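Weekend entry, working from home. Most of the wet-lab plans are on hold until the incubator is repaired, so I used the time to fold the two sequences that have been sitting in the queue since the last round of cloning. Logging both here for the record. First:
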Amino acid sequence: MGEIIVGYTTGVFDLFHIGHLNLLKNAKGMCDRLIVGVTVDELVSYKGKEPLIPFEDRIEIVRACKYVDATIPQYDMNKLKVCKQLGASMVFVGDDWYGTEKWKEYEQEFNKEGIKVIYFPYTRSISSTKIKEALKLTRGWTIEEPKREIKKGDYFKNIENNSL
């Protein structure tokens, strides 16, 4: 039996959607063991965004995906360091990064370490940002809105006690 091929990818995975699933499914098709770094809330905030779904929930959602063999928290942007620690020989990213100055440099760094950068088609029809925008437009919903206080009996106020 040959060497096990380990692949690595990262993401926020907020409002998990078909684009996320496509990335994970395609990545798993190219490696024996897929490890996924899920970005911690603090790093998402550092990048100027706020996740709607807390880190603990997002990592559980990704972990439950049948294409994922393991999940780890992503605490910083140094994917090369993590790939080396995990023994990954491939890193998977969306093709929306292809050709950018940042990823041209990353490709050179990864290539020096024998790690292939694989780009998958970005699912242009959907993104967490588009979902957030749609929620805001259709429901006036934003992350800044205060959470509604739930009072005792809110869920059962129309049900009589003896019918439970």
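Second, folded right after the first finished:
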Amino acid sequence: MKLANFFLLLISFNLISVEQDQLDVDFLSDDEYRIDLIFIKYLKDEDLKENFENPEVNFERFFVALDEFQYPNFDIVPTNFEIPKENQSIDIPFIKKETQKKTIEKNIITRKREFPREIFQIDKRDDNLMKEFKDLIRRSRYFRFIGEQSWYQPIPTKDNSFEIFIDSSIERGSRIYGFLRPYKGRYLHTDIEIFLAEKIQEDEILSIEESDNTNPNIEGYLFNNTGLELQKKSLPNLQEEELMPIFQLKESRRLRSGEINYFDHPKFGLLLLITKPS
């Protein structure tokens, strides 16, 4: 009898977690960090040794959706990245070599968030702290720059952590989106689950429309400083844009503030930089 009650309690907890509309906001008193992302697609045509099944994206979960805010651009102190000579391209070994260098926090001035910009608001202006990498990627014949995002937030402990929906722009029929869960203990950590979505053929569109696996109304939550009564935010219906996820990248990693981390898949990847404003 006690075992049955335990399973009923466990099921109830799972249902509540999906419909969660509140957050533990104790972490708001912690130091703020800045998070910068660059989404990358790998263009080199290689036969994959591993077989990948089409992934299914689970949106039946609680996650914070980033809001948008724009403000005037400011100059960024250049980093110490080696810039290739004209007509020289970059490849995956180059990116891995560069991201494995010492921390770059001393070479980047991460400005503090300026009022009235709030935490969890992305900056649409071109101020990504990995701008030099973005320029290299755009010049490369091996990579395609898909998009970028930047925002500020305090980082909670693992017990209070939550997922954030991240999303690139649509670039030449490709889009990268998914979930990022940063948290801290003795070190910074993050869990990522991202998907590469591509345009699909007309016959595939028809089969999707006939199936019941569509997500007609995908909603996240906009953060507020109280953590109470979070406002829902509808996300663009990815299937209406004729884009379907075809590859998935899922990984957990320990991080250091000021280090660029490259999460790579044979077909796409993500550059992540977390820094503490000086």
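Plan for Monday: verify the second prediction. The CA atoms of residues 93 and 181 lie 27 Å apart.
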